[in-house]
Every structure is written in C-alpha cells, then in structure tokens.
Amino acid sequence: MQTSDVAPDPNNADVDIDVYGWVLEHRTVDVDAVAAGTGHEADEVRRSVSRLRASRLLHVSPVDPTVAFAVAPDTAAEQLVAPLEAQIRDQQRAISGIREDLGRFLPHYLGRRSTGESLEVLESLEDVRGALNRASVNCTTEMISSQPGGGSRVPEAMQEALRRDETMLQRGISIRTLYHHTARFNGPSQAYVAAASVLGAQYRTAHELFGRLIAFDRELAFIPVS
Q1: Which InterPro entries does the entry mention (predicted)?
Q2: How would CATH label the architecture of 3-71?
Q3: What are the backbone dihedrals phi and psi of residue 142, each rounded to the nearest 5 degrees, phi first?
C-alpha cells in the first residue's frame, strides 16, 4: 500500500476540508445536501467523499449510506500507518537475521590473522570500498592520500570517493591529497577537486609520486599490493 493511494489530493485540499467540516457538523454525505452546504459542485463532492473515505477520515454507516461520521485525523493516520509499521518491523527482523547469520563467519575471517598482526589483505573491490567507508566514518582528525594515477581513476569510484570526502569535510575532518601533475588536465579530476575544495579539502600536484596511499588519522593506511 502506497501512502499516495490514500492521502487526500493536495490539489483539492479546500474541497476536502469543506466536505470534512460539513460531515463533522451534520453527519451526512448526502451529495445534494453537502453540495448546497459547501457551495461545491455535486461531482466535486462525490470525489471528495471518495478521497476522504479512502483516507479513513470518513466512516459511512452500513445501515444508511447517507449517514457518515468524521473520524479524528490521528485515528485515521493510525489505521493507515499500522500496516506500514508492520512491514518495517518485518524488514528489521530480516535485517537482524541476515546480520546474525553472516556474523557467525566473522571469527573464521578474523582467525586468518594472527594476534597482533597489523596487516590485512582485502581480496575484493567490495571489501576495499567497505573498509574505506568504515574508515571514513571512524576518522576523527585527518585523511591524507597520494593518487599517482593522474586522470586514470574510474569516474564511478571518484563519485563514491567524493561523497565520502564531502561527509568527512562537513564533520571538520582535514583532507589533503597529492596528485600526479597530469591530473591538472583531466576533466573529472578537476571537477572532483573543485567540489571538495569548496568544503576545505587541499590538493597539490607533483611530477613524481611514491605510490598510491590513503591514510586515516595516521593510524590506518590503505596501499595496493600490486
């Protein structure tokens, strides 16, 4: 169920409010009576009554279809949101189940590393992206990086990195990046630098770099193995 399927039409808000107020006072949805009392056309009244009933704002008597009662808006809202809240609870249970099921594998994954080992090999692009995202969230002071590829970075990766950097910059994290000189002539790189610089990131270029590196808080670093 979509909320737009039952919500009153904002383009007809005045009509719906007038009809709702009339029913609230007179307890009838007799079209001619409502039209005369509100000054709206009969067809407008019929459509309004239909919308208000769908929104649970009107309850029509099962004995006499011309008799109706206006329902309190908070009561109507509860009727509409109840199934949505049930869906959310189901999804939350499903999420918890997934985390619990996959969490059983974590000790085996961590067991690959000996106690005190400070090097971890990330074997897939998804692992790298996930680790970078976690590191950016946990970063408290600064991120420094070296990007020797110039303009060779994949546009999709640059967009993801820009979103990550913007979030850190908004939190007051210092970002400093060293690019290869050729990045000055690469359109996507220029756009990336321009967007992040506005928020306070700093960029420099050099003809020779020592390799690719991303370091967070001078405690955690990402370097390629090949």
Answers
A1: TrmB-like (IPR051797)
A2: Orthogonal Bundle (1.10)
A3: -150, 155
- Long-range contacts (CB closer than 8 Å, 24 or more residues apart) made by 182-190: 182/150, 182/151, 183/147, 183/150, 183/151, 185/151, 186/150, 186/151, 187/151, 188/151, 188/153, 188/155, 188/158, 189/150, 189/151, 189/153, 189/158
Instruction: Characterize the bridge pairing of strands 213-216 and 142-147.
Output: antiparallel
Distance CA 11, CA 70 (A): 21
Per-residue DSSP letter, 185 = G
Domain range summary for the chain, segments of one domain joined by +: 3-71, 125-222
Give pLDDT tens digits for 63-122. Answer: 888 899 999 999 999 999 999 999 999 999 999 999 889 888 878 766 665 555 577 788
Q: Per the structure block, which two tokens stand in for 67?
A: 């008799």
Tokens of 98: 């997934």
Query: If you classify domain 125-222 with CATH, what class do you get?
Result: alpha beta
